Amino acid sequence: METYQILGLIGSMLLVMAIVTPLFFYPRYAPAMMFGGMMGFGMMPGMAFFLVIPFALGVVGSLISDETTAGILLILASVFSLIAGFIGIISFILLLISGILALRQRI
């Protein structure tokens, strides 16, 4: 495996952590006054559905053999991963670097 593929898979696996974490740590039964209504510890569990798209783009971009297509998919996945909060920023950086590396190998 090449460097861009490994970085892309690591960035995508971080998105899996961002998908699963709100399902376990969101305060479902806490009193509304204590947590300020809809405020929680991260994303709401319904928002985790939107992280499936950058996860799929990152995995497909990491496993595809054409560097140009892989670079475009990885850069798209990096942009879409920004909705994940702090984990999304780390994933954004990894996926963006892997997309740039994939596109630079074609030159």
TrEMBL record:
Keywords: Membrane, Transmembrane, Transmembrane helix. The chain crosses the membrane at residues 6-26, 38-64, 70-103. It comes from the Archaea. This is Uncharacterized protein. It comes from Metallosphaera prunae.
